[in-house]
Amino acid sequence: MLVGFAYFSSTLAGSSDERLKVFRSDFAQVVEEPNPAWNDLARALTHLEEPGADHPVHPPAPLSRWMPDDLSGFYRYNGSLTTPACDEVVVWTVFETPISIGRRQLRRWHRLTSKTGGRLTGNIRPLQVRNDRPILYDPGFPFSSFG
Questions:
Q1: Most confidently predicted of 10-19, 57-66, 85-94
Q2: Which residues form a coiled coil (predicted)?
Q3: Is the omega angle on the peptide bond into residue 85 within 30 degrees of 0, that is, cis?
């Protein structure tokens, strides 16, 4: 399972760096106890009864709330959107460290429906060709290794 957060910098609009930034982490751990970081967002999902609806999350939170605690190892590559038209305008960052989500919190996502009426589960896009794009790896340096 995975989650992705999209970030677009309007200050870069029109520049050669005009790319959507996506941070992704694998949910390797579905746990029984809820993850407090997801409480506000999971509650907001209950207000999304119609496809395409939106609802603010209160209080607003920094993106770091939903990121792994350990950001020292990650992969980065230029890629594409995962939904049509699948334009190659994304910089993907994939973290090695998984994050956890509570089983009940996850069920709220499974109740959401797409614009076509289907559930938002099993919507995995097949792997795509790399088109000679490099995949960069940054192992990071844990603070404990500095002495």
A1: 85-94
A2: none
A3: yes
